[in-house]
Amino acid sequence: MDNPFKKIIQNEKLPDSIKEKVMEDVNMIKLTLDVADLFMIKYPDTINDILNLRNDE
């Protein structure tokens, strides 16, 4: 894949389509990290806490 930023002349303005693509990619990465955090860390911790509460009683 060609790097679109290398095609830009230094004084030239960045095209809006490239800005949008970069922001979409960043947002997708953030969403993926949030979903992974939810299902890989927070959800198991919650289940573990619930089971530990039941065992303590």
Molecular structure report:
By secondary structure, the protein is mainly alpha-helical. It has one helix at about 15-55. The longest helix has about 40 residues, at about 15-55. The radius of gyration is 22 Å and the shape is rod-shaped. It starts with 15 loop residues before the first helix and ends with a helix.
Secondary-structure blueprint:
Elements: H1 16-56
Compute the separation of the termini in Å.
58 Å
Radius of gyration in whole Å, from Cα? 22 Å
Main sheet, how many strands, which sense, barrel?
A: none
Percent of residues in beta strands? under 5%
Find the count of extended strands (DSSP E, 2+ residues). Answer: 0
**Please, what is the average pLDDT?**
84
Order of helices and strands: H
Proportion in helices? over 70%
Class derived from helix and strand content: mainly alpha
Number of helices: 1
Low-confidence stretches: none
The gross shape turns out to be rod-shaped
Summarize the structure.
The protein contains 1 helix and no strands.
State the main characteristics:
mainly alpha; single chain
